[in-house]
């Protein structure tokens, strides 16, 4: 199994909002946590990042990854994992591991006046990229066309 494929899963499972050595398999009240439900499996999640520019969308297990070199996007079949505090998507792009973690956190792309409801960390091969995400139900605020 790819070592990078485990990274988002571990981050999502371990992030529990508590300091110290809290058991990540139980909630604050000791109850078993539930899987993240902030973005439904049937919803389209859109994501974007800068430096370098990248983006795309994912619905279920079908992801499209876009770059300036591939403006129509590359189709990627991904495995979707709902953890305690977000989602992870794992697949491969051009033979490189593609592992994307999506978490609840206000996000700015740094280039527009938009604020997005979700933050993204993408591990593409050995490169880590930061970005933002939204859905039709969880929209960004700010200009539609910055």
Explain what this protein looks like in three dimensions.
By secondary structure, the protein is mainly beta. It has one domain. The chain is built from one helix and nine strands, in the order αβββββββββ. It has one helix spanning 3-14, and strands at residues 44-49, 54-59, 62-67, 70-77, 79-82, 86-93, 96-107, 116-124, 127-134. The protein has a nine-stranded antiparallel beta sheet with strand order 4-3-2-1-9-8-7-6-5, with helices on one face. Strand 3 and strand 4 form a beta hairpin. Mean pLDDT is 83; it is low at 1-26. Residues 1-19 form the signal peptide. Keywords: Signal. It comes from Novosphingobium anseongense. This is Lipoprotein.
What is the topology?
Elements: H1 3-14, E1 44-49, E2 54-59, E3 62-67, E4 70-77, E5 79-82, E6 86-93, E7 96-107, E8 116-124, E9 127-134
Antiparallel strand pairs: 1-2, 1-9, 2-3, 3-4, 5-6, 6-7, 7-8, 8-9
């Amino acid at each position: 199994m790819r070592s990078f494929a485990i990274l988002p899963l571990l981050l999502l499972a371990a992030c529990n909002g508590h300091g110290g050595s809290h058991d990540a398999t139980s909630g604050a009240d000791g109850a078993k946590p539930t899987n993240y439900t902030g973005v439904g499996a049937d919803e389209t999640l859109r994501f974007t990042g800068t430096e370098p520019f990248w983006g795309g969308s994912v619905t279920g297990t079908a992801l499209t990854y876009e770059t300036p070199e591939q403006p129509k996007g590359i189709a990627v079949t991904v495995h979707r994992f709902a953890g305690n505090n977000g989602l992870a998507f794992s697949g491969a792009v051009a033979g490189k591991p593609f592992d994307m973690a999506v978490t609840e956190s206000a996000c700015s792309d740094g280039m527009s006046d938009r604020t997005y409801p979700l933050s993204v960390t993408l591990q593409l091969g050995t490169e880590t990229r930061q970005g933002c995400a939204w859905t039709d139900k969880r929209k960004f605020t700010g200009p539609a066309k910055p």
